[in-house]
TrEMBL record:
It holds the Pfam family NAD_binding_7. Keywords: Methyltransferase, Porphyrin biosynthesis, S-adenosyl-L-methionine, Transferase. One of its GO terms (biological process) is siroheme biosynthetic process. Residues 168-379 form the Tetrapyrrole methylase domain. Its EC number is 2.1.1.107. The active site is at residues 198, 220. CDD domains: SUMT (cd11642). One of its GO terms (molecular function) is sirohydrochlorin ferrochelatase activity. It comes from Amycolatopsis alkalitolerans. This is uroporphyrinogen-III C-methyltransferase.
Length: 409
């Protein structure tokens, strides 16, 4: 077969597609076929659990038997994905007789069609063929899609008058490491005219912005200078109403103690459209990178994320510290460094044992990250002794004593 394939897009909606074989190859190919709206029929005596789940969900029809001649009658497209070369050859031969294009998974060039390495980006479907070198196709595809996501390759949307981004995007930047922002978040950041950021956002990404992008510092430093939330809201609205695309880049997830919904409400009241992009929350990501799992089988069946913005007993506090003290699972304390002694005292007074393990992760995911391990009855003194400072995430509970065995590393 010639390596000069003709690259075309097939409209398979409602059309019969037959895939023979229920193993890992089928598991990879089926989701995209199902996503096209094709009437997929699977022929195989056995399948992987994931493929079986697709059949149980009604996403395809599963014929629980081996392939037999005539199975391709009425099909528009076929895929031979068994682990038996003779069966795959027979499927391709039937497809040839019936003038049906057929992919042969075990020997691509012997079929009448090959599957391109594909990726999606905002309505674009990128396909790469390399004449029978699937690893090369996949590598090139990955680079192209990543470049589209980051804006390194313009997708032409703005010039074509499509996909223009009005208003504000509220982007959760993750816990600090620039690699932990979501793909969508990074893509929108690359399109921004104005970026309003705080100190907990992934600051390294600011250096990748276009030279003409305006950066507004909305840093909120605990117990230090802070931009008023009203000022931030007004700035978002002002720039958006001036016709600029504004990205509000926040640390972690915008809705986890990030006042993100306050900004959404302010924009909505002003008639400014908002796109919300969730982020990887520091409450779980920071402990994870420090080898502190917030749950573990047989150790913790609950996780409570608590704000340390106000102390126990404060008139504005909404936290039931007595209830937290009676829990046996994990408490993740955010913004609690300065009042750590008060929080620990409240939990101890409510009945939490003094020897409850505690782990404090400072500057999580960043080069300066460090972890302090202690117990509830001495954590405040230990934190003060080593100079723990914000930002830090405090994990309280049995999981804080867990650590991987490093002896074999």
């Amino acid at each position: 077969m010639s390596e000069d394939h003709y690259l075309a897009g097939l409209d398979l909606r409602g059309r019969r597609v037959v895939l023979v074989g229920g193993g890992s190859v089928a598991q990879r190919r089926l989701p995209r076929l199902i996503g096209t709206g094709a009437a997929v029929e699977l022929i195989s005596p056995h399948t992987t659990a994931a493929v079986s789940a697709m059949a149980d969900a009604g996403e395809l029809v599963w014929h629980r038997r081996r392939y037999a001649g005539g199975d391709l009658e009425g099909a528009w497209y076929a895929l031979a994905c068994t682990n038996d070369p003779q069966v795959n050859a027979a499927i391709c031969a039937e497809a040839e007789r019936r003038h049906i294009f057929c992919v042969r998974a075990d020997a691509g060039v012997e079929g009448t069609a090959v599957t391109a390495a594909t990726g999606r980006h905002e309505g674009l479907l990128v396909g790469v063929l390399s004449g029978g070198e699937p690893q090369r196709s996949a590598a090139v595809r990955d680079h192209i899609v990543e470049a589209l996501h980051t804006g390194a390759i313009p997708d032409g949307a703005a010039k074509a008058g499509i996909g223009e981004l009005p208003g504000v995007a509220l982007v959760g930047g993750g816990p600090g490491d620039p690699e932990l922002i979501t793909v969508k978040g990074r893509r929108l950041l690359a399109r921004a005219d104005v970026v309003i950021t705080d100190r907990l956002g992934p600051r390294d990404l600011l250096d990748e912005l276009r030279p003409d992008v305006e950066i507004v510092d909305a840093a909120k430093i605990p117990y230090g200078r802070a931009a008023s939330q009203d000022v931030i809201n007004a700035t978002l609205i002002e720039h958006a109403k001036a016709g600029k695309f504004v990205v509000r880049l926040k640390g972690g997830d915008p809705y986890v103690f990030g006042r993100g919904f306050e900004e959404v409400l302010a924009c909505a009241e002003a008639g400014v459209p908002v796109t919300v992009v969730p982020g990887v929350t520091s409450a779980f990501a920071v402990p994870a990178v420090a080898d502190v799992p917030v749950t573990h089988r047989g150790v913790a069946h609950e996780v409570v994320v608590v704000s340390g913005h106000v102390p126990p007993g404060h008139e504005t506090s909404l936290v039931d510290w007595d209830a937290l003290g009676r829990l046996r699972g994990t408490i993740v304390l955010m913004m609690g460094v300065e009042r750590l002694a008060e929080f620990a005292g409240a939990l101890l007074a409510a009945g939490r044992p003094g020897d409850t393990p505690v782990a404090i992760v400072q500057d999580g995911t960043m080069p300066a990250q460090r972890i302090t391990r202690s117990t509830l009855d001495s954590v405040a003194a230990d934190a003060k002794a080593v100079g723990v400072r914000p930002p830090a995430v405090t994990v309280i509970g049995p999981v804080a004593a867990l650590a991987p065995d490093q002896s074999s590393s």
